[in-house]
Amino acid sequence: MPIYKAPLEDMRFVLHELYDSTALAELPGNAEFTPELIDSVLEEAAKLAETVLFPLNQSGDLEGCTYENGVVRTPSGFKEAYKTFRDGGWTAMGASPDYGGQGMPIPAALMVEEMLCSANVAFGLYPGLSHGAYVALSHAGTEEQKQTYLPNLVSGKWSGTMCLTEPQCGTDLGMLRTRAVPNDDGSYSITGNKIFISAGEHDLTENIIHLVLARLPDAPAGVKGISLFLVPKVLVKDDGSLGPRNGVSCTAIEHKMGIKGSATCAISFDDAKGWLVGEPNKGLAAMFKMMNTERLSVGIQGLGIAETAYQNAVAYARDRIQGRALTGTKAPDKQADPILVHPDVRRMLLTMRAYIEGCRALAGWVARELEILHKSTDDDAKQAADDFSALMTPIVKAMFTDLGFEIASTAVQVYGGHGYIRDHGIEQYVRDARISMLYEGTNGIQALDLVGRKLPQDGGRLLTRFLDPVMEFIEANADNAALEPFLPPLQQALEHVQVATGFIMENAMSNHDEIGAASVDYLRLFGLTALAFVWARMVAIAAPKADEQNGAGQFYRAKVQTAKFFMERLLPQTGALLAAIQSGSATMMEFEDAAF
Amino acid sequence: MPIYKAPLEDMRFVLHELYDSTALAELPGNAEFTPELIDSVLEEAAKLAETVLFPLNQSGDLEGCTYENGVVRTPSGFKEAYKTFRDGGWTAMGASPDYGGQGMPIPAALMVEEMLCSANVAFGLYPGLSHGAYVALSHAGTEEQKQTYLPNLVSGKWSGTMCLTEPQCGTDLGMLRTRAVPNDDGSYSITGNKIFISAGEHDLTENIIHLVLARLPDAPAGVKGISLFLVPKVLVKDDGSLGPRNGVSCTAIEHKMGIKGSATCAISFDDAKGWLVGEPNKGLAAMFKMMNTERLSVGIQGLGIAETAYQNAVAYARDRIQGRALTGTKAPDKQADPILVHPDVRRMLLTMRAYIEGCRALAGWVARELEILHKSTDDDAKQAADDFSALMTPIVKAMFTDLGFEIASTAVQVYGGHGYIRDHGIEQYVRDARISMLYEGTNGIQALDLVGRKLPQDGGRLLTRFLDPVMEFIEANADNAALEPFLPPLQQALEHVQVATGFIMENAMSNHDEIGAASVDYLRLFGLTALAFVWARMVAIAAPKADEQNGAGQFYRAKVQTAKFFMERLLPQTGALLAAIQSGSATMMEFEDAAF
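ok -> structure tokens follow
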């Protein structure tokens, strides 16, 4: 049976030591969120994840969701778990106190989210989508809409969805066909078919609030003619109680590679009653507020699954005995040594670990900036935070999910043939992780967002929000002996980013294909460099404490050694990525279409 | 619905143009295997693969095998397909005419094998294991054993297995517990439990010949005390007809991530009657004859699945319209451009293609050397062929299967969210490909075989069988203008191999952990360099024909462009791999066990 234990020590390290949570507690509204309170919240979340959600992960995969006559049933136990989840107030965690939320600082909320994803990513999608709907509505909704819908979304009494995709339109929302016709009473009649709607129909809540992209009759063609509508599954009466069913039905659920406990629905809107959210024809902007939140969350899915995969691989490597160490017997009392003695097994485990802890630290940084963006009163700090989080969102989404899949597959490799057997529960992580590279914008689309939109934005200002602190750190630590082995590789990776950026900017002006040709490799190059930077920062904190002869000393020593492993073994990829980027678009574009 | 069409043009290119099949026809016993005959065999195989096996691939995955009271049923249609397969003589393809085989040259047989794996890898495992059993028996069996069992294995009337793994012993066969006690009649009583036995029980043949590793009562401990036994499911009478059931039973089948149409069995031997194959306590050597054949075949599984994944990704990229080209509309008559216009989609497709065609060419080289080894009368040529194929076997097994999985996952990425849906049949390739990195020795074990065994063997002679032809080629083509852009990257990759080899050899003497620390990265570095070499050789042939204004011209131009893509985009990884190797084992070995 798989195991999972929330990595609280590392989470506390990131929240408190790496990013100084006491400083965040000084932001308006955060006074009660002392490090002590955050720690106790994390402990409660760990209990929930470990004892309520994780035990349903494997059974949820085996059983899956079922569909019958428009009714979707979640796997056994999900309903009870959702009730526990709601009763514990976890749906309200990240929401504003104005609507019954707890206003938890984003860095802490993100750690809780990681635990949910580690424990049961399929379950986590239900409250996850609700939170996305909450974000979009709270940004773009009218006061009446907010009062009617947000408290019940926040309390988890109702859930939410985002309905974008249609059979003919995924990435290219300009091809969207769902129509919205105005009614006399100010509402709209929505008609169209949506697919791939996560949590589109289920048995966890009494109502589901769909946020639906559709076209008004007079809408311009393409993406400039898309509006956002709120369409409840069950209509809500003026007194807030539930009225009749709306013209919304689930026509099928998808049979998928993984996340089988999550209902992925085809939803048909048939003259369904809906209300405009935000301005006509400005639906994409409102939806993107939701999308950006979701993109970070999807990145965290990659991280969360990777953590569980890692923990199980470690446990198996300790437990499984097979062969002897290359340097001679290590466990003479046993018939063979645990496979943890083999360098290649350690290489796999440290690769997983170096990525996971690096990603957690990077996510913590992005979350911190988002918290500043949402709560600071300092305009400069808010602008900087907005820039940085916009720059990093596609990187977190794409790199974390690519790595999540790689790490899940590495865990299978540690298990050998046993990893391929369903009973052991490890291959599920590979299947569950694979979706995160695809939804909320494929990872290729994330890379285009980074290179085509975020890099040139505001004269390249966003990029400086990353480059400047790295350069400042390198300068400030020039004489820091503990960092001596770490700064040269960081410096070199940074140069690779700078050279690659210059190459793309120079060539893309005359040929836009250079953007697409470079984008995916550039995102990984940038992401690895960002990981190198957070690793160097972690070393700066950990190295002075690495000599302590206690458990904490071991934690800090492991940090320094993992950082070393990252720099030596993983960061050198940046050179290969730079070379690939510099080869440009010519070869791939000249290849004759018919010859593929 | 997924598609598959055998890549006959490329197969002919590899067999005839790259490696001169007419020269192979001059080996003893090969006279009838003219290029024309080989082509017609390939065409027949293509028909079988495309029209009989491929249509059962997706249904076989959905239905899987079933187990009831010791009886295993293969998915619907498998029995009929196996009959067609047998009737067509395909089980006899690679076997010796002495036992009813066709004695087909190995390069051609390997292309047929690739087609089977592309069409239905789960089905292909049944005849594949039989061929493995054939190889082991024909090497180590007595004349009587051969006469009794080989003709029926070759005709496909019976099938075979290899029974190595037990719950406590996978890689480390020294821990094997199955016992063999001698009977008075010269037979042995075999008792023990084996797991993960592919084709261990099924409904395709009337008998199954198990080749079983077990210990004699007086056997020394560890791997030096393992013997090989032939244990038929149904005992064979002196007249060759079937007698009573033997004490062999299938106690369960595994529920796996993929290859669900292949029965992976737990087999219990309960005083089963068996016969010693080869010398007592020398079972591993005999089994390794089978293993090496199987390892090449498993590599071809990676290649075969990758080919189908590629073809489907191309078809989807042509068909799916979404968005507009970055450089402006390409299909003004459509609502959007096919996604094939996007550089990143082309990058993904060319990455798949560059690996696939490179691997096919490399496999063709190994197959050619194996053919020389088996049929040549020239001792020097045989020795060289033996060396080369021994060196390359772990690379083909590990790199091809790693890439097969990566490529299958890339195909899913080209499909976007639709790739995650089971109905579309693409995610199956990811699941089916994953096993090949694990069985017949995990890819980590392959890398240890390469670095720990093959490199130092015979004073490094095996390595020269690769390095010498590469250096000769570079020298011979120094003035070849067509190769100008290709030789410098090849030269550099070769240097990376040489530096890495020197580093390992120097350091491994004092510290064996250096072998394991370097092995996986070294295997990939070596493999990429081998691909670079076969790509350069293909360019040497294709470049002069690339200007022809016909279909063939397009084929050759595509070869040259794909080679360019490989050199520019993929080969630069060798630098990163070298850097990782040179970081050595210290960091991973110093990491405290308790800190994982």
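The longest helix of chain B spans residues 283-319.
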